[in-house]
Amino acid sequence: MPESAPTPPRENRGLWNITLGALHRFRWRTVRRGRAPNHVVVRMSGEITAENAERVDQGLRNALRTHPRILEVDLQHVTYLAGDSARAFLPALRTSRLYGTRVVVTHASAQARSTLQRLGLTNMLDIREGNAPDNGRPDSRTS
Q1: Whole-angstrom distance, CA of residue 124 vs CA of residue 77
Q2: Three-state secondary structure along 5-35?
Q3: Which residues contact 103 (CB under 8 A, 6 or more apart)?
Q4: What is the pLDDT of residues 70-80, one digit of tens each?
Q5: Is 40 exposed, middle or buried (0-12, 13-18, 19+ CB in 10 A)?
Q6: pLDDT digits (tens, 9 = 90+) for 80-100
Q7: Whole-number Å distance between alpha carbons of 75 and 107
Q8: Which of 87, 94, 16 is nearest to 52 (CA)?
Q9: Structural contact between residues 128 and 142, judged by C-beta atoms closer than 8 angstroms
Q10: What would you report as the CA-atom Rg of the chain, rounded to the nearest whole angstrom?
């Protein structure tokens, strides 16, 4: 019978947790709210880097295929957003403008916000603390 993974000594558990966190791969999931595709949520997790930027772009553009009024990009479980991953968001932003879709980024960490600001994407994205509004009006901010 195979042995389970060894439990690290108590003094090394912090390093063990950091190592396991570094192995967290990028994933996304698309959720549609309501019957009509007025509000589509893409939940991302893991690290967004240059290596997976194409997958991020593909996931965002797939979510835009139904021409929703709001595309919510939930970054709550994103552990790291690399500066060179901007190419993942730009094609989706161009497509969203063609469809008249508002792109809202929710639950972004301080690190992710800083990266988006440094790349100049904060002018093109609606960045929120909490969830995006369901009705799509710009004056209905939530926190």
Answers
A1: 22
A2: CCCCCHHHHHHHHHHHHHCCCCEEEEEEECC
A3: 71, 73, 92, 93, 96, 124, 125, 126
A4: 999 999 999 99
A5: buried
A6: 999 888 778 888 899 999 999
A7: 5
A8: 87
A9: yes
A10: 17
